[in-house]
Amino acid sequence: MSEIAIPQQAGQSQADDQASFERLFGTDDDLLPLWIAEPYLPLAPSIVHALDARASAGWYGYEIRSEGVNRSFTSWMKRRHGWDLGGTELLVSPSLGTSIGVALDLLTDPGDGVILQPPVFTDFKPLVTRSHRKVVRNSLVLDGTEYRMDLEGLDDVASRPDVKAMILCNPHNPVGRVWTPEELKTVAEICSHNDVFVISDEIHADIMLKDSQFTPFAAAAHGTDVRWIALHGAIKTFGLAGVADTLILTEDDEFAAGFKSTSSRLHLTRNNVFALTAIETAYEHGESWLDAMLEQVARNVETLANDLPDPVRIIQPQGTYLAWIDFRGLEMDVPELSQWLPQQAHLALSPGHWFGREGAGFARMSIAVKSPVIDEAIQRLSAAIG
User: Fold this and answer.
1) Residue 3 Ramachandran class (φ > 0 left, ψ -120 to 50 alpha, else beta)
2) What gap in Å lies between CA 160 and CA 140, rounded to an integer?
3) Quick one: which of 254, 262, 297, 364 has the fewest CB in 10 Å?
4) Residues 361-383 pLDDT 10s
5) What are phi and psi of 294, to 5 degrees?
6) Is residue 351 located within the same domain as residue 252?
7) How far apart are CA 250 and CA 165, in angstroms?
8) 190-211: per-residue pLDDT in tens?
């Protein structure tokens, strides 16, 4: 993995165009774009070469999804996380958002409540509200330097008769918590007791830092009657959000039948030939690249922890390649901080309030980058603070 700057396409083209970028950040002048949750690094050569070879084949018609694609994922989960999928069913979905949107339609009715734990991934709330369901907040608690779940509060809201589902983020985007087996077990017991279906977003499962260990919700829920699905895929692990599809894992026959019916009706599983190549190659040959990326992210976390200028600090992440940066010591309100970051610090970060009002005073930074990029971000913050 060679020393590089931020890839040219990162930031502006991913925001659709220059106008969109300016709408988000107020300017496009000399911004360092670290706001999108994906690696800003050269991707695994094995994947790039496989996609090049597939493109050069010169035919792009219908292609059956081979058993090898699912086998590569199943083997990966056993090898990386000790999770034997056994009788778990794997359902193909075009995206994480598609998976959640269809799940909400199948599991809830308009007007029902869906539990979220903000500050949390920005797409969850609109997925709930656009399906005419209600967001039920079970906000995370910042306890000193670490976030925790408000489990008593979760029990309270889950007991409401209108609450039918919970979207769990495991590991958590943006705060970087990797939930423990004990925490997840309690969530499973609460939701089982109250007949709340758990949609567990585990798309960051592979991105574990230091001694952290990913626990599948399915493993923690074993022995309870909770109904659940888990969302997985290679898109975050290997930077394939623009190529690869995602997977829904479930042992719930009723949900599986409903999803298959919806998928058939809406043609959700029409295969993309490049996605098939990318996924199988990633899980078969991408492991050493991932390990190198995780080492780089860990170094970047350490640099941020040691070198961020006072009073800015990082909330130490246990997983993901996302840094949750605490700017509250600057004593700026939400509009002021949102303008100061791009206009004074020349950084395009995701402002914390995008993830819910609980994120006010924070910002999310993607740190799957080479060390000089982190050094540059710190220098810009130091110069802006003065």
Assistant:
1) beta
2) 19
3) 254
4) 999 999 999 999 999 999 999 99
5) -65, -35
6) no
7) 15
8) 999 999 999 999 999 999 998 9
Report the alpha-carbon distance of residue 314 to residue 89 in Å, rounded: 38
Using alpha carbons only, give the angle 225, 231, 235 rounded to the nearest 5 degrees.
165
What is the chain's length? 386
Regarding whether 299 and 273 lie in a shared domain, the answer is no
Identify the domain boundary among 265, 285, 305.
Answer: 285
- Lowest-confidence region among 63-67, 114-118, 167-171, 326-330: 63-67
> Quick count: other Cβ atoms within 10 Å of Cβ 55?
12
Query: Does some domain include residue 6?
Result: no
Question: Distance of alpha carbon 187 from its chain centroid, rounded?
Answer: 19
* Among 53, 36, 41, residue whose Cα is nearest residue 281: 53
Evaluate if pTM is beyond 0.85: yes
Read off the tokens for 271: 């295969």
Q: Is residue 8 part of a domain?
A: no
Residue 2 in domain: no
What is the Cβ-side half-sphere exposure of residue 36, based on CA atoms within 13 angstroms?
A: 24
- Domain assignment of residue 354, given as a range: 13-43+287-385
Residue 214 in domain? yes
CA 29 to chain centre: 28
Q: What is the CATH number of the domain that holds 17?
A: 3.90.1150.10
Residues 97 and 195 in one domain: yes
d(CA 296, CA 374): 11
Q: What is the mean pLDDT of the chain?
A: 93
